[in-house]
Amino acid sequence: MIVRIMGEGQVRLDDSHVAELNGLDDELLEEMEGGDEAGFRRTLCALLDKVRELGTPLPDDALEPSELILPSPDSSLDEVRQMLSDDGLIPG
User: Fold this and answer.
1) Rounded Cα gap, residues 56 and 85, in angstroms
2) Which end of the chain has fewer surrounding CB within 10 Å, N or C?
């Protein structure tokens, strides 16, 4: 799967990592619902770090369709809330 981190670029991520990322996504959703700004910030950074760690960056000039779009690390709680689906940021 191709994942875009807004403001950074794209990475290729094996589908087998989705379950691991969903744990962080669920935690992020709970912190957002509870208004825990510090927890939200920490978990968002952990989620993005994990995507960077597990994924392989695509060249800057690559224009692959992104199957998943994640917010930038400096996104606000409200900005991320607007990006959410019923499953959070990561479907599944």
Assistant:
1) 25
2) C
* 6 pLDDT above the threshold of 70: yes
pLDDT in tens, 51-70: 999 999 999 888 889 999 99
**What does the radius of gyration of the chain's CA atoms come to, in whole angstroms?**
13
What one-character-per-residue DSSP string does 32-91 give? Answer: HHHT-HHHHHHHHHHHHHHHHHHSEEPPTT--PPPSEEE--TT--HHHHHHH-BTTBSS-
The answer, yes or no, to whether residue 86 has pLDDT greater than 70, is: no
Residue 92 clears pLDDT 80, i.e. is over it: no
In this structure, the number of other CB atoms found within 10 A of the CB of residue 70 comes to 23
Q: How far apart are CA 61 and CA 47, in angstroms?
A: 25
